[in-house]
Amino acid sequence: MAGAWKVAYADFVTAMMAFFLLLWVLSSVSPETKAGLAAYFKGELQYDSSATSPVSNNPFLQNTARISTDSLRISENEKSHIAIAQKLQQMLMADAIPQSASGISADDVGVQLRVNSDAMFQPGSAALSPQGVKVLGSVMKILREYNLYLVVRGHADSAEAQPNYPSGWELSGARAAAALHYLTTQGIKPTTLRGICYGDTRPYKPGIDEASKAANRRVEFVFHRPEVMSYSVVY
Fold first, then answer.
1. pLDDT over threshold 70, residue 229
2. How buried is 117 (Cβ within 10 angstroms: 0-12 exposed, 13-18 middle, 19+ buried)?
3. DSSP letters for 130-154
4. How many CA atoms lie less than 13 Å away from 222 in the CB half-sphere?
5. Most confident of 145-159, 167-181, 197-211
6. Mean predicted confidence (pLDDT) in 194-219
7. Distances (CA, A) of 112 to 15, 25, 56
8. Does the CA dihedral 61-76-84-224 come out positive or negative?
9. Check: CATH 3.30.1330.60 for 45-230?
């Protein structure tokens, strides 16, 4: 046991090295990025936390207005995703979509925009509302500017389908199809679009209260590069 102090001393030195490394990293980060990190760890950021989503969460993206990609040591692909997320966020804010009714997330596959169905469709139907047309207008701008492919995923809550649709499968599929149909009528190539319906099988929030149901009936737009389809499943 005479050498036990050496183990404790080694642990202390390792901890000090990690601490000074952390200080060095923080000193090289811009104030804007620090603000984004601080907001994330304080729990001020709201972002898509769906465990079933194939698009992972990037905590920076919910504070995109305060982050400069020039100050981040990231790949060009990651910079592109942040730029797309920033533009989506600006468009949504310009069209007055409530933050609680939308969310943006990203990973190396692409960028996901989540919008509650209540902000896009008439209740219990696949008829686009004027606000839904505005959302799709933002989607089109992104597709045209960045030459991306798109997967539209429809979701419904457990009770919304009645009586207009037999089940949430039909309703969520009809909403995804309505969004895709509108995009094609505006000149987006059908070969760059995909659609899928999940019904109520992938709830965004657990629970049967109205707030959870409202969050679960949603449409997700997954923007991705054309080559992604050859090696990754984005559904």
1. no
2. buried
3. HHHHHHHHHHHHHHHHHT-EEEEEE
4. 26
5. 167-181
6. 89
7. 38, 29, 9
8. negative
9. yes
Q: What are phi and psi of 59, to 5 degrees?
A: -60, -25
The residue whose two tokens read 């000193």 is 27
Residues 6+ apart with CB under 8 A from 89: 61, 64, 65, 104
- Residue 191 pLDDT more than 90? yes
SS3 content of the chain, % helix, strand, coil (to 5): 50, 15, 35
pLDDT of residue 57: 40
**110-116 and 149-154: which strand pairing?**
unpaired
pTM attached to this predicted model: 0.69
Nearest to 153 by CA among 169, 132, 135: 169
Residue 188 is encoded by which pair of tokens?
A: 């987006």
What is d(CA 105, CA 58) in angstroms, rounded to the nearest whole number? 6
Q: Output the six-digit token pair for 191.
A: 């070969």
Q: For tokens 């009714």, what's the residue?
A: 101
Tokens linked to 197: 């319906």
**Rounded CA gap, 138 and 88, in Å?**
7
